[in-house]
Design brief:
Helix content: 40-55%
Radius of gyration: 24 Å
Structural class: alpha/beta
Largest sheet: 8 strands, mixed
Number of helices: 19
Length: 430
Amino acid sequence: MSASLKTSLPGNRDPFAAYICDETALDVLRPVVIELGWQPEKCNKGGLRNAVQSLSVSASPNILMVDLSESGDPLNDINALAEVCEPGTVVIAIGQVNDVRLYRDLLASGIHDYLLKPLTSSVLRDSLNQAQTVFMAPRGGETEQQRPHVSTAVVGMRGGVGASTLATSLAWMFSADRKMPTALLDLDVHFGTAALTLDLEPGRGLIDAIDNPSRIDGLFIERAMIRANENLAILSAEAPMNSPLMTDGAAFMQLQEEFRHAFDVTMIDMPRNMLINFPHLVSEVNVVALVTEMTLASARDTIRVLSWLKTNAAHAVPIVVANKVQPGAAEISKADFEASIERAVDISIVHDQKAGTNAAKLGQTFGAANSGSKATAGIKQLADRILNIGSDQSDEGTSAETDKKSLLGSFDLKSLMAKKPRKPAPAPAE
């Protein structure tokens, strides 16, 4: 494998690790691992139980090979492995049981491949190359349709509560920290700050999209969006104040549709008035983050927006985010606020004026400029909550379609869809 291919594998995890029961199989595996440019030290002695123990205290690799030879009930034991594996891990199992039913059940559960002992170099090389292809597969076609997409609208309950600050910080975290392809759509067409926050020129992409919705396609997205980093593209505008917003919202819906094909995450900085003028904008949104302050006016508007969402976007999960929290200095207490809105505040983010000033001076998002602040810790907590909700909704959708939950929800379920059918070597017998 070339150096460029290795470095393009997602995340900061190890590209490969194996847990093999016997030295004979390890002796066959190590030369293939070296040939692929990986560390032979990642070939560990021990089977499935050793893998579970090790991965419970360390990050799982991109590609994991586990030996089921010492497992009395492989399908049941796989559950323990799924609990400690991070999403995206591609698992190759090896074993001694020559049973086509086991082979099919393992693949149906999300295992990428099942290889029979005794292993051969050619079979190992074949399987590992296919596992790499899962990561490097293009974003089109059937594989793309299986990829869960998380779409979040960030809505400020009042002006100045910091909704745009949170939207840009979240987008940056998903793209830079999580390495997830992310689109940031700033729907404040006249006074949006997404580009300004990132020290970028907004360009004319969003204005062109509004003026010509029929032009919006994958190529338009690629040309119109401004790149903030390798995984983050933004669409923002600074429309002239003498140019009122003339649209029926079709362009915004088309943009969201294209984002679902091109990105893993969509972040929408959505002004409150957009909910009124274009209620259909939240029809495909997973999460709505309601950003508020501990004030009477914010409590009133949070109540109104929660009620509106319940009627118009019941599928979207609301998250109430108290921003710029100053203990002892709030207009109303947290307890009174929660009693007023009849639900708990999900996330509280402390006020840090100094950190905000620092971000502005550096031309960076709040989270990027102040990685160690307490406020940034709150934003990270919000990011985790959003991804968890998106993942849960994706699992529910898959379960509803198949009427059956995979044993390996944590593994890369795309692998089974992405790989081409091939004969196991040797082919299991009935």
